[in-house]
Specification:
Purple Acid Phosphatase, chain A, domain 2; alpha+beta; six-stranded mixed β-sheet; Immunoglobulin-like; disordered N terminus; Metallophos_N; about 500 residues; Metallo-depent_PP-like; 3 domains; four-stranded mixed β-sheet; Metallophos_C
Amino acid sequence: MRQFVIFLVFLVFQGLIGQRTLKGVVFVDENANGVLDGEETRLSRVLVSNGKDIVATDNQGNYSINTINDNPIFIVKPSGYISRLDADNKTKFYREEGDNSKSFNFPLYKNKEPKDFTIALLGDLQVDVMDDVHHVGKLVTEELARNKPDFIVPLGDLSFDNHDIFNPLSKILGLIGAPIFYVIGNHDLNFGEASLEKRDRSYEEIFGPSYYAFEYGQQLFVVLNNNFPLKERTYEGRIDINQLEFIKNLVDVKSKEYSSIKLFMHIPLEETVNKEALLSILAPFSEVFFATGHTHTQYHNYHPREGRSEVHELIAGAVCGAWWQGSHDIRGVPFALMYDGTPKGYWLMDVGAESYTLNYKVSGSGKDHQMNIWLPEKNEWDTDLNFLNEPFIYANVFAADTRTEVSISFGNDQWVPMEKHEGIAPELIRFNALQELGRYEGQKISHTPKATQNSKHLWRVKIPDDLASGTYLIQVKAENEKLNLNAFANRVLWID
């Protein structure tokens, strides 16, 4: 009996190892010295979390919370304030890893946050070598620095398993000059760790917690880590138990203040094995939006909910396109079309008090570049590509969903609907053909895999048999009121 009691005590002791009570104050650092001085304002009702439990600061800004092994302690940034930004514009809203002090204060700074604001959503950046970091600088940093968003959310797969590249990537994005809230992807994981809590060890050293929440401009945002490591460097989309508890505790508090919630994670909901458990927790919100990445294609999903409006999910493609593969353009950047024929780019999300809109921006192109039109062209010099000349016109509308209406005019002001088409984008078929013909031999490039994936935003129409010989300035328009999509493009069609 005595040995059994000793064993129980040992188990309890083991469970308590690494668990302490952390205390501190959340305050307004009015003199910006990072230290709580006597007269500085203390903030009440600010949420503090250990990645599972959530507590709120009292009237004097005090909090007390138990720590969890290998879990950072962080605050839920309140609207109108922001944590210290480091030199790379990462928000330091957490206690640094390895800090074992028994007390920790969180300084905050007043931050002007309008009710209408813009978020830049960056799908998979997937940098592996410094060449890729240079590409990000040309395609993202240089553009967004000219039209600065209010904050930036990279949607995971920051690296291509090379965690040494985290720091250079952080620096190139930091030059934009806007706060950055990072998301972790499956290629950012530490596989083979002894515990689930250490899966994000390398990521945390540079970017901080791999899941958290924050408020901005009277809106609630949540960043999730649904990359669940399995054996031998495999993974699945799953929200772990501690994280589900964190979300539940957050919803219990914040659903009384907010009717909507916006979430960012890497793997899409349809590939997350316990998505129903997650959506069930989010049921109190009348509007739920997700932005994800992972697929290197882009599309919209709508998840039905009983008695509530459907959940809108944007799968936001990839800044790197198809992993920086293929021939390079004049600036040395790979063409790397996404696997649905979408050119590389990023999304801008305009958030208002009652609604939001999403706009896709092709890197290096004007904001009006919202579709590619493909039509037959008879070549006299490069005849190898004439095999592509089938009697159809295609429109690849980058930001469209399946409910978008696409129509075409042959220059006579009469609009004919185009049919939604499940097929491979013609641009990719052409690119693969050129590669197979050896047109890119001699270049030091990564070759693009053969296109096999259907685009989810491709339309086509058969060219009318009764069109007279001549030239036609065809026009294509795509409209979707819910998405605030009103795209237009034209091309010249030759009929022999």
